[in-house]
Write a sequence for this structure.
């Protein structure tokens, strides 16, 4: 076991999973003086949280407003740089894309955020790497992107600055239950007594929750990205479109993903995922999105495994039993929301409820009528039983 | 109900391959040639690719070897280079005669094989490229015989023209007849290095000195004697202090190493030269294998990080095999190519009974690498870039400083205390090079860490008082050669079905319903169709 601090035998709150969700939760808890330890079988951000697109613009989520409020302050709140850059642009290459991308405008307006419709010329002016072929786009006066690597490490360090602890390379293997509660979290390096447990283990959340009798339906999937060598910085780095999402990093690299995913069997969750030849399809789309970058060379590609619930929406909920467990899966879109998610979960743990957002759409109760063979019906898994 | 796969997923898509072979061999050295010959003799179709001759632009970027601008203008002449390379491959004629389809100037940029995390591929495939095209090839068996490269070693001036890997120099001199520097100082005295030095000497270069950081040379005395016969000096107990000169190296200054292994003040030795050859360690080229997901181990007897192999040279990925130096480097193998050829034959053969056993001697590759880095990189101060692509210094690595483009030192009050953070804050006593890469960018540039990987591992080991082998391998990713977007885009063309269903993310409408409109209950049967709407 490798520890960042002293060995742990007990903690008020044990958080399982040192991804963006678990670490942000740990950081918010530690700030309010709670004795917290975050455990991960790998290293900080070794799952999807260290392999994603860094986008922070989730206008359909009940945590959107808080996401937007917090990101511009995160460097200061954490005390370490996240490379957050505000605003986003989305370019369309045909009228249908332009229409589809309008949903963001309506959702954001509903919550008091503005956007601007761009014609082809304005779009090209705003995005120097774009070329002909753009029919228009949107400038979103909200959202943005951050560097996932730096952000997850910032959470971990900031949490430690407030007395929280991280146990890396420590795998949770089970739970000791007593009187309808989890009394201890069992790891491959011993048991940790606890008052409260937060389960934020990404694609492993389903398996771990099942050990204490809680059903969290989900199926893991692989998604891939590529990154180019650095290019001159565009005024706005968060440029999506043409079926791709991504960002220009502050170093200048283009880091992009999009296109087909692959649903996986549960066994695949434990392996470090390999990328596949999907890279070349993404390269074609990216060269079209940024014709002036078509010469830029790809220097890496990678894959991440993420979980999706049946409706693709997060679960943040406290099951009736065990009475001291909070379950959190962000269902494939949890990096950008993490500052807000962590705050919400920390409140749920310490006060029983979140006081700044309505999280009823994240409850497990919505799956009460879910078919046992839902994954088959949705075409995610051929086997009829999930 | 019949199963209808999620149309936005890759399920049901067949990866088109431009061509197929029963056996694909990557690399035209002794192991690769022997593999190709073996498969051909068993009546199977074989394609062998080798990226030589390498184009000037690629060489100028120190890919795939650390060429250090040591090539003459002759490499511009593609046809002459093709001829030179073909002439330098002794087994080429036999291979062609046996019916092997040999492609020179063709690089493999990625290997992919099905596994628990990849279901949509039917079998092993590889991505190939030449100057103008990129395409996929399918094969039942892929034999990787990608050879070896030099370990980098930073010291002031190591970015100057003429400071280069000794394998790069040997490649230029022997394969291309295009090595520019003529008066050379060699760092390192292992068997591999001395063998290269002798080859360079035979090709007409002057080896002024061979330098060993330890108190005694490592390789066979007979090899040193052979070098000395033509005037080569042996200098033990010294490490490079500085390469002097303008853009190009004009002299190498050495300083003595103290009992603790640090470079110290003392009487310097200055040698005028126009080339400094890094021979401090030879590294198996495992990038394709690692990126494909083959399990890796640190095996000092096989020269460092190498693929886990069975008795038939099979990796942990079915269908992918490794042979020759990329499967392990040790002195007997370096001195006698029969061992590499045997590996190639075993790796390619489908016949029963081809399994073989070899026992590489104990090696101490870790200690040797630590010794060089301790004596040069550790004490070299602040201005020295260990990672040349991203310009990261040893101190920045050890202190986990955020990259300079963040301008952290100039940030407003209260911002980052990052310098309070060092390696220990990252992972206690067990730092991982991938974490260090994520935070400092060391190894994140276009050369993909070829020149800094082993140095970063050694720095982490020294800083955390661990043996070299305890530092876990940094990952490799495809494409293992930098590849222009427009070239990569030629590999595969979107089918109509793919274009129709292409979506930014998973394409599940329910995921993006604004929260104020979400129904209280969700069922799969009543979900809205998955054909309309775009992911946000
Ligand atoms: C390619 C890609 C692009 C993406 N792009 C974006 C984007 O642009 N914007 C966005 O917001 N989101 C994006 N996402 C999604 C986002 O990355 C994830 O939703 C988010 O990181 C989830 O964070 P998490 O902490 O909930 O889970 P994870 O990051 O998966 O963390 C879970 C952790 O739990 C640990 N764990 C599992 N089992 C155990 C056990 N038994 N014991 C101990 N520890 C365990 C794992 O090691 C892991 O570190 C993307 C994802 C991918 C893969």
């Amino acid at each position: 076991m490798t520890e960042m601090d002293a060995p742990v035998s007990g903690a008020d709150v044990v958080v399982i999973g040192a991804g963006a969700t678990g670490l942000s939760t740990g950081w918010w808890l530690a700030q309010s003086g709670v004795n917290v330890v975050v455990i991960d079988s790998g290293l900080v951000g070794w799952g999807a949280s260290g392999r994603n697109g860094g986008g922070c613009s989730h206008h359909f989520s009940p945590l959107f407003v808080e996401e937007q409020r917090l990101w511009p302050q995160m460097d200061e709140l954490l005390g370490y740089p996240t490379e957050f850059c505000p605003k986003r642009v989305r370019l369309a290459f045909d009228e249908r894309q332009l229409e589809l991308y309008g949903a963001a405008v309506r959702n954001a307006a509903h919550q008091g955020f503005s956007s601007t419709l761009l014609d082809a010329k304005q779009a090209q002016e705003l995005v120097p790497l774009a070329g002909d072929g753009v029919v228009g786009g949107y400038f979103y006066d909200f959202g943005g992107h951050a560097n996932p690597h730096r952000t997850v490490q910032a959470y971990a360090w900031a949490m430690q600055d407030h007395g929280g602890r991280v146990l890396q390379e420590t795998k949770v293997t089970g739970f000791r239950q007593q009187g309808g509660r989890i009394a201890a979290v069992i790891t491959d390096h011993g048991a940790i007594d606890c008052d409260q447990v937060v389960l934020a283990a990404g694609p492993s959340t389903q398996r771990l929750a099942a050990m204490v009798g809680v059903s969290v339906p989900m199926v893991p999937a692989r998604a891939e990205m590529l990154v180019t060598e650095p290019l001159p910085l565009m005024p706005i780095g968060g440029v999506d479109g043409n079926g791709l999402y991504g960002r220009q990093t502050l170093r200048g690299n283009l880091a992009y993903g999009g296109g087909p995913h692959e649903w996986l069997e549960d066994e695949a969750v434990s392996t470090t995922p390999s990328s596949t030849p999907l890279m070349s399809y993404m390269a074609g789309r990216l060269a079209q999105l940024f014709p002036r970058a078509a010469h830029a060379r790809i220097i890496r590609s990678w894959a991440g495994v993420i979980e999706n619930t049946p409706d693709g929406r997060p679960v943040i909920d406290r099951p009736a039993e065990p009475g001291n467990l909070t379950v959190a899966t962000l269902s494939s879109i949890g990096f950008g929301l993490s500052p807000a998610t962590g705050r919400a979960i920390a409140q749920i743990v310490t006060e029983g409820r979140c006081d700044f957002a309505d999280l009823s759409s994240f409850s497990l109760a919505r799956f009460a009528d879910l078919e046992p063979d839902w994954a088959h019906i949705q075409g995610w898994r051929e086997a009829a039983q999930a | 109900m019949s199963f209808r796969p999620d149309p936005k997923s890759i399920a049901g898509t067949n990866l088109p391959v431009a061509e197929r072979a029963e056996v694909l061999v990557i690399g035209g050295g002794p192991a690769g040639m022997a593999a190709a010959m073996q498969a051909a003799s068993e009546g199977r179709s074989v394609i062998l690719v080798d990226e030589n001759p390498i184009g000037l632009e690629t060489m100028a970027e120190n890919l795939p070897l650390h060429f250090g601008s040591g090539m003459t203008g002759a490499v511009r002449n593609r046809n002459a280079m093709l001829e030179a390379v073909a002439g330098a491959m002794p087994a080429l004629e036999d291979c062609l005669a046996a019916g092997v389809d040999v492609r020179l100037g063709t690089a493999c940029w990625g290997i992919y094989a099905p596994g628990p995390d990849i279901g949509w591929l039917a079998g092993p495939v590889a991505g190939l490229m030449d100057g103008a095209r990129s395409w996929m090839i399918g094969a039942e068996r892929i034999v990787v015989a990608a050879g070896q490269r030099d370990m980098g070693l930073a010291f002031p001036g190591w970015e100057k023209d003429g400071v280069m890997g000794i394998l790069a120099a040997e490649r230029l001199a022997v394969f291309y007849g295009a090595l520019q520097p003529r008066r050379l100082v060699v760092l390192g005295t292992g068997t591999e290095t001395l063998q290269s030095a002798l080859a360079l000497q035979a090709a007409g270069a002057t080896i002024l000195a061979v330098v060993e950081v330890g108190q005694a040379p490592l390789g066979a005395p007979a090899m040193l004697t052979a070098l000395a016969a033509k005037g080569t000096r042996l200098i033990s107990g010294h490490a490079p202090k500085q390469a002097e000169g303008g853009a190009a190296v004009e002299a190498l200054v050495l300083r003595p190493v103290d009992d603790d292994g640090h470079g110290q003040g003392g009487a310097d030795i200055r040698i005028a030269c126009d080339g400094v050859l890094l021979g401090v360690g030879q590294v198996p080229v495992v990038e394709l294998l690692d990126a494909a997901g083959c399990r890796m181990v640190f095996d000092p007897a096989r020269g460092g990080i190498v693929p886990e192999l069975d008795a038939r040279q099979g990796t942990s990925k079915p269908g992918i095999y490794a042979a020759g130096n990329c499967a392990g480097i040790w002195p007997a193998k370096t001195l006698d190519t029969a061992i590499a050829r045997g590996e190639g034959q075993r790796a390619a053969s489908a016949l029963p009974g081809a399994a073989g056993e070899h026992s590489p001697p104990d090696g101490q590759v870790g200690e040797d690498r630590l010794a060089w880095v301790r004596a040069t990189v550790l004490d070299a101060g602040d201005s020295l870039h260990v990672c040349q692509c991203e310009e990261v210094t040893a101190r920045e690595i050890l202190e986990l400083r955020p990259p300079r483009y963040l301008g952290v030192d100039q940030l407003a009050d209260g911002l980052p205390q990052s310098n309070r953070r060092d390696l220990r804050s990252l992972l206690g006593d067990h730092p991982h090079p991938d974490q260090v890469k994520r935070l400092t960018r060391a190894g994140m540039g276009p050369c993909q860490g070829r020149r800094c990987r082993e140095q970063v591992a050694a720095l982490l080991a020294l800083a955390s008082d661990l043996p070299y082998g305890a530092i876990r391998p940094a990952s490799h990713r495809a494409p293992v050669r930098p590849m222009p977007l427009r070239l990569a885009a030629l590999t595969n063309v979107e089918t109509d079905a793919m274009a129709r269903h292409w979506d930014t993310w998973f394409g599940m409408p329910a995921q993006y319903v604004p929260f104020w409109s979400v129904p209280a209950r969700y069922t799969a049967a009543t979900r809205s169709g998955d054909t309309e709407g775009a992911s946000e």
Summary: The pocket of flavin-adenine dinucleotide is lined by residues A 16-22, 39-42, 46-49, 51-55, 171-172, 200-202, 204, 208, 223, 225, 245, 257, 304, 306, 330, 332-336 (CB under 6 Å). The radius of gyration of chain A is 21 Å. Chain A touches chain B through 107 residues (CB under 8 Å). The longest strand of chain A covers residues 297-308.
